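[09:14] KT: can someone run the structure on this one? pasting the chain below
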Amino acid sequence: MIGSVPFKAETVAKLLEHPVNFLAKNPRTLADIYADVRMLSRIVGRAAAGERVVARMRREFAAIATRAKKLPRRVRVYCEAWPHPRISSPPWVAELVEFCGGEMVVPSGARVSDDDVARAAPEVMVLAWAAVGDKSRAKQAYGVVEWKDVPAIRERRVFVVRDELLNTPGPPLVAGAKELWRIFQQTCAEQKAAKVR
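[09:31] RB: done, structure tokens below
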């Protein structure tokens, strides 16, 4: 069996009562994710396929990063993995944000307060709550009193991204990066149009 953090210690203890092998993973960065893909593919005797997966992910990310260089500036972003307690998205999401043309404005993978986010003043909020698919609720963000003056709230730029596209440490991150790129590109275009008016 393979488990990835977060998992409950009690659940792991129960698993270990049975004669099964348990591999616990805790990737933090894209480099960790690439290493895990390679290791898991070797375990199942598909090392070459694992290398192809990693190479494809790197290629796709590089292509997005090239397009992102054409944005007029970096977009200030807050990505959220969970609302109660409020936890920012994991470090690999901060890496995706960076090469998609954004800047994560709070520490990644950390518990943050409403005031922390307000002080960071993101222009865009991305909600990808773990294990809820696309059911993160933007309406909740708009109702946070401390955020009433945050640019993302004032300008109605709270976006929901399916959680597996940002929280799955593997190939789905490519689709997540494409979604982030689309959001940042749209934000820059809207801001440019607003200046012209």
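[09:33] KT: thanks! DSSP finds nine helices and seven strands in the chain.
[09:34] RB: yep, looked fine to me
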